[in-house]
Amino acid sequence: TMTREELMEKVSEKMSDKRFQHVLRVEKKAIELAHKYGVDVEKASIAALTHDYAKERPDEEMISLIKSKGFNVELIEYGNAIWHGILGAYLVKEELDISDSTILKAIELHTTGSKDMSELDKVIYVADYIEDGRRFPVVEEARQVADVSLDLAVGFETKHTLLYLINNQNKIYPKTLETYNEWVVK
Ligand code: DGI
Ligand code: FE
Ligand code: FE
Ligand code: FE
User: Fold this and answer.
1) ipTM attached to this prediction
2) Residues with Cβ–ion distance below 5 A, ligand 4
3) How far apart are the CA of 108 and the centre of ligand 2, in A?
4) Does the entry feature the keyword Metal-binding, yes or no (predicted)?
């Protein structure tokens, strides 16, 4: 098993400095949320450091993996935004030798959420959205909600992500709607 420094080295090799700085800010926020909401801080750190591990892999490599490793081929049409978490969990397990299923699930769900989210899944999902470098109109409100309730923060993020996606006529991944139905609908 790797030290945090070894893990940081492996992750930074696979992405631009700009994205690695995002990863470090997600880790900082995830650790903060983990302390506040009673989640395993070491797991939060590892999941945060690895959540975007696959984000900068070439599309051709990712599409080959989807086909050869038996992932749902419908992933292909959703593009990197959706497949980097799902394939990321697979690549983190294969290449970084991280086998903790609770960490791998948090990586897998970090973009879309799901109806069944552990507290660790919620911490990573929310930390990615509100890390200190994020700048969008409702981020300050999202940070305030996360200060009050992790579940409400999941709902707030899901609602505003969907509003954004619909405004831009983006394709909605079914899991995103599943998350909406569980965490937003009254
Ligand atoms: O990888 P990050 O940029 O740090 O953040 P992320 O993994 O949470 O989100 C990546 C992108 O995915 C972001 O622009 C929002 C988008 N996204 C989330 N749900 C959906 C989606 N895109 C589409 N097309 N459909 C979704 O359901
Ligand atoms: Fe991501
Ligand atoms: Fe996110
Ligand atoms: Fe991210």
Assistant:
1) 0.98
2) 52, 128
3) 9
4) yes
Find the 51 Cα to ligand 3 centroid distance in Å: 9
Is residue 155, in this structure, part of any structural domain at all? no
Residue 1 confidence class, pLDDT cut points 50, 70, 90: confident
Average model confidence (pLDDT) across the chain: 98
Structural domain boundaries, residue 116? 4-136
| CATH number of the domain bearing residue 104 | 1.10.3210.10
Q: Is 102 part of a structural domain of the chain?
A: yes
Model confidence pLDDT, tens digit, residues 13-48 = 999 999 999 999 999 999 999 999 999 999 999 999
Is this prediction's pTM over 0.95?
yes
CA-based radius of gyration for the chain: 16
Q: Is residue 31 part of a domain?
A: yes
CA distances from 70 to 73, 93, 100 (A): 8, 16, 21
Is the CA virtual torsion 6, 35, 104, 100 positive or negative?
Answer: positive
pLDDT at position 7 is 98
Distance CA 59, CA 140 (A): 33
Task: Quote the CA–CA distance of 142 and 83 in Å, as a whole number.
Answer: 25
Q: Which of 27, 49, 111 to mutate to test the pocket of ligand 1 (most atoms within 8 A of CB)?
A: 111
Pocket of ligand 1 (CB under 6 A): 52, 55, 78, 81-82, 85, 110-112, 128, 161, 165, 170-173, 176
Residue type, 66: I
Total of domains in the chain: 1
Please check whether residue 142 lies inside any domain of the structure: no
